[in-house]
Amino acid sequence: MDDLKDRVVVVTGGSRGMGREMVVAFAERGAHVAIASRKQENCTQLAAFVTDRYGVRALPVGCNVSNWSDCDRLTEAVYDEFGRVDVLINNAGLSPLYPSLAEVDEALFDKVIGVNLKGPFRLSAKIGARMVEAGGGSIINISSIAAIRPNASAIPYAAAKAGLNSLTEGLAQAYAPTVRVNTIQPGAFLTDIASAWTPEGRAHMENSAALQRCGNPDEIVGAALYFATSASSFCTGAVLRIDGGTA
């Protein structure tokens, strides 16, 4: 992983859960990090931690990726601070609960599409174009098993993540041959949202996986490092399932 030292990595949804694990993993390997999420305070705390622990530069940015102007502001802040981006990880996501499909209102639907699809498109368009100009880079989208295994409790989310998978292949063609674009497609992971799961729901997810368990947040790291480095130099437009063999 020597090619990560002094690289610049941007992680949206980077202050907690799998995003936090990726931020820490890249910083541990000498990369400078931009940490973006809706809560500035959480980003600032994590930035201070990785700077103190690993001696890298860290930029905290409060950003709602469903807002294009926020995406543009994040892009400019990162380039003003670091002058370049080597890796963009579109990790921010959300899937609000709803009582029924008929009760999904327009605001909720737009919010889900905005965070999970619209934001990654805008950031990839803005940063990806600059990566091409700079001669290379890697964009990593974080999708979901819901993209190919949708269920009634998360249909707008599943549709957004399916769109993200499609976006990955299109961007891989658009930015080739210098910029690679790939997707990690996680299954059920024990992030903070797992606290809202019912015991029955968790048991169902565990029983649906060949490995008979949910993932731990740090188990996303290996795939992220793979796509971010020369280890995946001949890989673009790919969707890698990290789901314990969910059927």
From TrEMBL:
InterPro entries for this protein: NAD(P)-bd_dom_sf, Sc_DH/Rdtase_CS, SDR_fam
Which keywords does UniProt give here?
A: Oxidoreductase
Q: Could you tell me the superkingdom of the organism this chain comes from?
A: Bacteria
Molecular function in Gene Ontology:
oxidoreductase activity
Pfam families in the record, alphabetically?
adh_short
Signal peptide positions on this chain: none
NCBIfam families referenced in this protein's UniProt entry, alphabetically: PRK07231.1
* Family classification: Belongs to the short-chain dehydrogenases/reductases (SDR) family.
Official protein name in the record: Putative short chain dehydrogenase/reductase
Q: What is the lineage of its organism?
A: Bacteria, Bacillati, Actinomycetota, Actinomycetes, Mycobacteriales
